[in-house]
Each structure stands twice: as structure tokens, then as C-alpha cells.
Amino acid sequence: MPALFALAVSVGVLAVVDTWLFVGPLAATSLAGLVWISFIAWGCHFQSGGGTKGSTTAIVCMSWGALVGMVAVMLAGGALAGLGIMAAPVAVGLGAALICLSSAIGWLSTIPASVYGFASIAGPILLADKAPQAAFVPVVLAVVIGAAFGFVSEMLANALTKKGGANAEATADPEHA
Length: 177
What we know:
Helix content is about 70%, strand content about 0%. It is an all-alpha fold. It has one domain (about 5-20, about 35-170). Helix 2 crosses helix 7 (about 130-160). The radius of gyration is 18 Å and the shape is flat. The model has no long low-confidence stretch (mean pLDDT about 95). InterPro entries: DUF1097.
């Protein structure tokens, strides 16, 4: 079948499975409600070039960003708390600068993926009232699940694609093909 339809079938079916995991078996765990992070990591897999590289980039950079975000929240409520209303903005600015600077390290070179992780940790902290340290591992696990779904959806789409046509990565993100 054409690559676009193969990708649509693959992603559509696996989106059902991914969502079911988070509202079903994982609903009674610390991962409850974090399906959105999984979907961000899934998209990050494709945006980062797909294949093993895309999944690795999504996992490493998003996890790094989540760690930086966790520390930023801790700084805002700790060492920077004396800044009052400016504590959080300064902590976020420091975190954003660190993400940019750390992109000089090969494994951390995809700044957008790190930013996705930085932003992702805010959800469980702000919406579920989790302590920053308690939010980190569930966020990373949701990232790993999402990157795995990205990888599997790409492989499945490629298997369903008519031979000689575009691959799933080219269809999902033509800039990285």
C-alpha cells in the first residue's frame, strides 16, 4: 500500500494500543495520565530522523531535558526562592541556557528534543502535584514507551508499504528523509 496509508494504519492502530496502556494497565501506576508525553516522544522519534537514531535521540535528549527541568523546578522553590515571582522565570532561563550549551555534546545535540523533555516534566509537577523528584522517573518511562512506539510504528509502516515507494520516515517527516 502507499506509504502514507501504511503510516496512517500503523500509527492509528498503535495509538489505540499506546492510549489503552496509559488508561488501562498503567492507570494504577505513577504513569497514569502521561500518554501525552508518550505521544511527544513518538513524534520526536520521527522528527529526529527515525530508526534507531530517532528513538535514541528522543530518549536521551528528552530525558536530559526532563532532568534539567526537574532541577529548575527545585531551584525555583529552593536556592532561587528569594527572587520571589522571578524565581521560576530565572530557573527556566538557566535551564534553557544549559540545554543549549549541552548541545555541544553529541548525544545532546538535538535541542528541540531536550526542550520537549524540559516541558514534559512540568505536567506531572504542576497538574498532578508531584514532587519534582517523583515526576522524573515516570516522565522518562513515558518517553521510552513513546520512542518505542515510534520505532515500531515506523517498522510496521515500512513493512506495509509497497516496495519501491517512500518509507515511513520520509512520509512522516520529509525534511529528514
